[in-house]
Sequence to fold (257 residues):
Amino acid sequence: MLGLYPTEIVSYLGGLPTPYVLGLMTVFCFSAVLFMLRFFGAVGLYVFIVVGVIAANIQVLKVVSFPFYGHPVALGTEIFALTYLCTDILTEFYGKEKARRGIWLGFSGYILMTVIMVLGMGYAPAPASAVGPDMSWAVANHGHMTSLFMPAPAIFAASMIAYLCSQYYDIWMFSWLKRLTGQRALWLRNNVSTILSAIIDSIIFNVFAWIIFSDNPVDTHTLIFTYILGTFGLRVVISLLDTPFLYLAKYFVPKGR
Fold:
């Protein structure tokens, strides 16, 4: 009975307009960031960053349509954008060295997950003839897991290059603006650093993934409107929406940090 619940939830959400699901996902993730900060401090944000990087690189395999944008959009953008909120909170309240540690933990977590899953895919699955009726559900799962967790080298390399470049830039820009503004204008350093980092990440990832590393490069129109602008607009919106949560974060930083 319990196993049916996720299926029923997915079926229900699938019947809703995509902006509703986007709003639900955004509220949940913002709240999760504050929850992890309140109960685990910097370590909680590290965990969110690792999970966010892994989840984003899985979700990017799914493409959805939004009524407010005329081109299909790859998922993963939303939760990946929230890792910038985590590094901004870390930079603001814990310092840029803690924020950089979060970047490398996200990078290491994704590498570790990838290696573990590739090794797991290396096990030859039991043939259908050897699987009894009680485990017949597992026969098709090897192919499903391979589709999800076997990384395309181009996507993998492009993702990691873009991630490190954009995240380091985000911390540098946020810290530079903080030196200029002091404790004032938190909204300014949050939005400027995140939006500029989003531009860098989107351009680097998509150019490397679909042009430089691709055996069949996409045309310029698809590159710009489906991949670069399709995700960038959503990230700008998320950046604007996360500003109140950055202000709220100071009330969630645990005593003693």
Notes: The chain has a mean pLDDT of 87. The radius of gyration is 20 Å. Residues 17-121+140-251 form one domain. Strands lie at 63-64, 73-74.
